Amino acid sequence: MNQLHEEPTLVEGFPRKGIGNPPHVFEAPNETIKTLLERRTIRRFKDESVNPEYLDIIVDVGLRAANAGGCQAPIFLISQDKEMNQKLGRISNDLYDEGYYPVSSAQPSTACMVGLKNAFYDAPVVITVFTPQDWSYAQFDVGVCVANMMNAAWSLGLGSCIVSRAARTFATEAGKEVAARAGIPSDYEAQLHLVLGVPENTDADPHELYPNRVAWL
Ligand SMILES: Cc1cc2nc3c(=O)[nH]c(=O)nc-3n(C[C@H](O)[C@H](O)[C@H](O)COP(=O)(O)O)c2cc1C
User: Fold this and answer.
1) 42-197 has CATH 1.10.580.10 classification
2) CA 141, CA 135: separation in Å to the nearest integer?
3) DSSP 45-97
4) What is the pLDDT of residues 72-109, one digit of tens each?
5) Is 95 in the pocket of ligand 1 (CB under 6 A)?
6) Does residue 128 have its Cβ closer than 6 Å to ligand 1?
7) How many whole angstroms separate alpha carbon 135 and alpha carbon 139?
8) Predicted structure pTM score
9) Where are the domains of the chain?
10) CA–CA separation, 177 and 182 (whole Å)
11) Rounded CA gap, 87 and 164, in Å?
12) Is the CB of 161 under 6 A from ligand 1?
Protein backbone atom coordinates (compact mmCIF):
# COMPACT_ATOMS: atom_id res chain seq x y z
CA MET A 1 0.00 0.00 0.00
CA ASN A 2 1.33 3.46 -0.86
CA GLN A 3 1.78 5.98 1.92
CA LEU A 4 1.45 9.75 1.63
CA HIS A 5 4.12 11.21 -0.69
CA GLU A 6 5.17 7.81 -1.94
CA GLU A 7 5.20 7.27 -5.68
CA PRO A 8 2.49 5.08 -7.25
CA THR A 9 3.30 1.40 -6.90
CA LEU A 10 3.97 0.76 -10.58
CA VAL A 11 6.87 3.23 -10.79
CA GLU A 12 9.15 0.87 -8.93
CA GLY A 13 7.40 -2.37 -9.61
CA PHE A 14 6.85 -2.65 -13.32
CA PRO A 15 9.57 -4.29 -15.40
CA ARG A 16 10.45 -1.74 -18.02
CA LYS A 17 14.06 -2.65 -18.76
CA GLY A 18 15.33 -3.02 -22.31
CA ILE A 19 12.46 -1.42 -24.15
CA GLY A 20 11.89 2.12 -25.40
CA ASN A 21 9.37 4.82 -26.31
CA PRO A 22 8.77 6.40 -29.72
CA PRO A 23 9.84 10.02 -30.20
CA HIS A 24 7.29 12.42 -28.74
CA VAL A 25 4.85 13.97 -31.21
CA PHE A 26 5.37 17.73 -30.85
CA GLU A 27 3.03 18.86 -33.59
CA ALA A 28 -0.32 17.18 -33.95
CA PRO A 29 -1.17 16.57 -37.61
CA ASN A 30 -4.92 17.06 -37.01
CA GLU A 31 -7.49 18.11 -34.39
CA THR A 32 -8.24 14.54 -33.32
CA ILE A 33 -4.61 13.80 -32.48
CA LYS A 34 -4.35 17.21 -30.80
CA THR A 35 -7.28 16.34 -28.51
CA LEU A 36 -5.82 12.93 -27.71
CA LEU A 37 -2.40 14.39 -26.92
CA GLU A 38 -3.60 17.39 -24.94
CA ARG A 39 -6.46 15.98 -22.86
CA ARG A 40 -5.81 16.05 -19.14
CA THR A 41 -7.85 15.06 -16.15
CA ILE A 42 -9.86 17.93 -14.64
CA ARG A 43 -11.02 17.80 -11.02
CA ARG A 44 -12.01 21.42 -10.42
CA PHE A 45 -15.27 22.52 -12.00
CA LYS A 46 -17.28 25.72 -12.28
CA ASP A 47 -20.71 25.69 -10.67
CA GLU A 48 -22.31 25.70 -14.13
CA SER A 49 -24.41 23.15 -15.91
CA VAL A 50 -23.16 21.49 -19.08
CA ASN A 51 -24.61 22.53 -22.42
CA PRO A 52 -27.24 19.80 -23.06
CA GLU A 53 -26.27 19.51 -26.73
CA TYR A 54 -22.68 18.84 -25.71
CA LEU A 55 -23.82 16.28 -23.18
CA ASP A 56 -25.87 14.48 -25.85
CA ILE A 57 -22.82 14.39 -28.13
CA ILE A 58 -20.61 12.99 -25.37
CA VAL A 59 -23.10 10.27 -24.50
CA ASP A 60 -23.58 9.37 -28.16
CA VAL A 61 -19.81 9.06 -28.56
CA GLY A 62 -19.76 6.72 -25.54
CA LEU A 63 -22.59 4.61 -26.92
CA ARG A 64 -20.78 4.26 -30.25
CA ALA A 65 -17.46 3.16 -28.73
CA ALA A 66 -15.91 -0.09 -29.89
CA ASN A 67 -17.36 -2.96 -27.86
CA ALA A 68 -16.64 -6.64 -27.48
CA GLY A 69 -18.48 -8.77 -29.99
CA GLY A 70 -20.61 -5.84 -31.12
CA CYS A 71 -22.82 -6.65 -28.11
CA GLN A 72 -23.06 -3.03 -26.91
CA ALA A 73 -23.08 -4.33 -23.35
CA PRO A 74 -22.44 -1.03 -21.50
CA ILE A 75 -25.38 1.10 -20.41
CA PHE A 76 -25.18 4.59 -18.93
CA LEU A 77 -26.73 6.45 -16.02
CA ILE A 78 -26.37 10.21 -16.49
CA SER A 79 -26.98 12.12 -13.27
CA GLN A 80 -27.31 15.90 -13.14
CA ASP A 81 -29.06 15.63 -9.78
CA LYS A 82 -26.89 17.78 -7.51
CA GLU A 83 -28.07 16.21 -4.28
CA MET A 84 -27.63 12.67 -5.59
CA ASN A 85 -24.18 13.41 -6.99
CA GLN A 86 -23.15 14.87 -3.61
CA LYS A 87 -24.50 11.88 -1.75
CA LEU A 88 -22.85 9.22 -3.93
CA GLY A 89 -19.65 11.30 -4.26
CA ARG A 90 -19.30 11.34 -0.49
CA ILE A 91 -19.94 7.61 -0.28
CA SER A 92 -17.28 7.01 -2.96
CA ASN A 93 -14.88 9.25 -1.05
CA ASP A 94 -15.46 7.29 2.16
CA LEU A 95 -14.85 4.03 0.30
CA TYR A 96 -11.40 5.16 -0.87
CA ASP A 97 -8.84 2.85 0.74
CA GLU A 98 -5.94 2.68 -1.69
CA GLY A 99 -3.38 4.80 0.17
CA TYR A 100 -2.17 8.31 -0.55
CA TYR A 101 0.33 9.70 -3.03
CA PRO A 102 0.72 12.85 -5.10
CA VAL A 103 -1.39 12.12 -8.18
CA SER A 104 -1.62 15.77 -9.26
CA SER A 105 -0.79 19.05 -7.57
CA ALA A 106 -2.66 21.13 -10.17
CA GLN A 107 -5.86 19.06 -9.97
CA PRO A 108 -5.62 17.22 -6.62
CA SER A 109 -7.48 13.95 -6.32
CA THR A 110 -9.03 11.92 -3.52
CA ALA A 111 -5.71 10.02 -3.44
CA CYS A 112 -3.82 13.24 -2.59
CA MET A 113 -5.49 13.37 0.85
CA VAL A 114 -6.27 17.09 0.77
CA GLY A 115 -9.42 16.79 2.85
CA LEU A 116 -11.70 16.43 -0.14
CA LYS A 117 -15.13 15.20 0.80
CA ASN A 118 -16.70 14.47 -2.57
CA ALA A 119 -14.93 11.97 -4.84
CA PHE A 120 -17.00 13.39 -7.73
CA TYR A 121 -15.34 16.79 -7.17
CA ASP A 122 -18.72 18.61 -7.23
CA ALA A 123 -18.94 18.04 -10.99
CA PRO A 124 -22.39 18.89 -12.39
CA VAL A 125 -22.60 15.68 -14.43
CA VAL A 126 -21.80 12.17 -13.26
CA ILE A 127 -21.97 9.41 -15.86
CA THR A 128 -21.89 5.89 -14.46
CA VAL A 129 -21.30 3.06 -16.88
CA PHE A 130 -22.87 -0.30 -16.04
CA THR A 131 -22.46 -3.72 -17.66
CA PRO A 132 -24.32 -6.99 -17.18
CA GLN A 133 -22.99 -8.89 -14.15
CA ASP A 134 -20.34 -11.43 -15.13
CA TRP A 135 -19.81 -9.88 -18.57
CA SER A 136 -16.29 -11.09 -19.43
CA TYR A 137 -15.35 -7.95 -21.32
CA ALA A 138 -16.84 -5.47 -18.84
CA GLN A 139 -13.69 -3.58 -17.92
CA PHE A 140 -12.45 -3.38 -21.50
CA ASP A 141 -15.79 -2.20 -22.88
CA VAL A 142 -16.17 0.40 -20.17
CA GLY A 143 -12.60 1.68 -20.54
CA VAL A 144 -13.15 2.25 -24.25
CA CYS A 145 -16.48 4.09 -23.72
CA VAL A 146 -15.10 6.28 -20.99
CA ALA A 147 -11.95 7.15 -22.93
CA ASN A 148 -14.03 8.17 -25.93
CA MET A 149 -16.27 10.35 -23.76
CA MET A 150 -13.31 12.04 -22.02
CA ASN A 151 -11.76 12.94 -25.34
CA ALA A 152 -15.09 14.15 -26.74
CA ALA A 153 -15.55 16.31 -23.64
CA TRP A 154 -12.10 17.83 -23.95
CA SER A 155 -12.63 18.61 -27.64
CA LEU A 156 -15.78 20.55 -26.62
CA GLY A 157 -13.96 22.59 -23.97
CA LEU A 158 -15.25 20.48 -21.08
CA GLY A 159 -13.19 18.74 -18.41
CA SER A 160 -13.64 15.26 -17.01
CA CYS A 161 -12.24 12.76 -14.56
CA ILE A 162 -12.65 9.01 -14.29
CA VAL A 163 -13.68 7.90 -10.80
CA SER A 164 -13.28 4.32 -9.58
CA ARG A 165 -15.15 2.39 -6.86
CA ALA A 166 -18.41 2.52 -8.84
CA ALA A 167 -19.32 -1.11 -8.09
CA ARG A 168 -18.87 -0.59 -4.37
CA THR A 169 -20.63 2.78 -4.42
CA PHE A 170 -23.65 1.29 -6.17
CA ALA A 171 -23.61 -1.75 -3.88
CA THR A 172 -24.54 0.52 -0.94
CA GLU A 173 -28.22 0.99 -0.04
CA ALA A 174 -28.10 4.56 -1.40
CA GLY A 175 -26.51 3.35 -4.64
CA LYS A 176 -29.05 0.55 -5.08
CA GLU A 177 -31.88 2.99 -4.52
CA VAL A 178 -30.54 5.41 -7.17
CA ALA A 179 -29.99 2.63 -9.72
CA ALA A 180 -33.47 1.20 -9.15
CA ARG A 181 -35.06 4.66 -9.40
CA ALA A 182 -33.24 5.28 -12.68
CA GLY A 183 -34.43 1.94 -14.09
CA ILE A 184 -31.04 0.25 -14.26
CA PRO A 185 -31.74 -3.51 -14.40
CA SER A 186 -30.84 -5.22 -11.12
CA ASP A 187 -28.51 -7.68 -12.89
CA TYR A 188 -26.28 -4.85 -14.14
CA GLU A 189 -23.18 -3.79 -12.23
CA ALA A 190 -21.69 -0.28 -12.03
CA GLN A 191 -18.13 -0.27 -13.40
CA LEU A 192 -16.78 3.27 -13.62
CA HIS A 193 -17.88 6.88 -13.24
CA LEU A 194 -16.94 9.75 -15.52
CA VAL A 195 -17.55 13.12 -13.88
CA LEU A 196 -17.60 16.15 -16.11
CA GLY A 197 -18.24 19.87 -16.28
CA VAL A 198 -16.87 23.24 -17.27
CA PRO A 199 -13.28 23.38 -15.98
CA GLU A 200 -12.48 25.96 -13.32
CA ASN A 201 -9.07 25.93 -14.98
CA THR A 202 -7.11 23.55 -17.17
CA ASP A 203 -3.94 23.62 -15.08
CA ALA A 204 -2.08 20.33 -15.19
CA ASP A 205 1.18 18.93 -13.90
CA PRO A 206 3.83 18.34 -16.59
CA HIS A 207 3.00 15.28 -18.65
CA GLU A 208 6.19 13.32 -18.18
CA LEU A 209 6.12 9.89 -19.78
CA TYR A 210 7.87 7.08 -17.94
CA PRO A 211 10.55 5.55 -20.13
CA ASN A 212 10.61 2.06 -21.57
CA ARG A 213 6.94 1.35 -22.00
CA VAL A 214 7.11 0.25 -25.63
CA ALA A 215 8.79 -2.86 -27.00
CA TRP A 216 9.53 -3.13 -30.71
CA LEU A 217 10.15 -6.09 -32.99
C1 LIG B 1 -9.07 3.19 -14.55
C2 LIG B 1 -8.87 4.59 -14.00
C3 LIG B 1 -9.32 4.87 -12.72
C4 LIG B 1 -9.18 6.17 -12.21
N5 LIG B 1 -9.71 6.46 -10.98
C6 LIG B 1 -9.64 7.72 -10.53
C7 LIG B 1 -10.29 8.06 -9.32
O8 LIG B 1 -10.93 7.24 -8.65
N9 LIG B 1 -10.22 9.36 -8.90
C10 LIG B 1 -9.53 10.31 -9.61
O11 LIG B 1 -9.51 11.46 -9.19
N12 LIG B 1 -8.90 10.01 -10.76
C13 LIG B 1 -8.96 8.74 -11.24
N14 LIG B 1 -8.37 8.43 -12.45
C15 LIG B 1 -7.69 9.50 -13.22
C16 LIG B 1 -6.16 9.34 -13.17
O17 LIG B 1 -5.70 9.71 -11.87
C18 LIG B 1 -5.52 10.21 -14.26
O19 LIG B 1 -5.98 9.80 -15.52
C20 LIG B 1 -4.00 10.09 -14.20
O21 LIG B 1 -3.49 10.68 -13.03
C22 LIG B 1 -3.31 10.70 -15.42
O23 LIG B 1 -3.64 12.05 -15.55
P24 LIG B 1 -4.18 12.63 -16.95
O25 LIG B 1 -5.50 11.98 -17.22
O26 LIG B 1 -4.27 14.12 -16.74
O27 LIG B 1 -3.16 12.28 -17.99
C28 LIG B 1 -8.50 7.15 -12.98
C29 LIG B 1 -8.05 6.85 -14.26
C30 LIG B 1 -8.25 5.58 -14.77
C31 LIG B 1 -7.80 5.30 -16.19
Assistant:
1) no
2) 10
3) B-S-PPPHHHHHHHHHHHHTS--GGG----EEEEE--HHHHHHHHHHHHHH--
4) 999 999 999 999 999 999 999 999 988 887 889 999 99
5) no
6) no
7) 9
8) 0.92
9) 42-197
10) 9
11) 16
12) yes
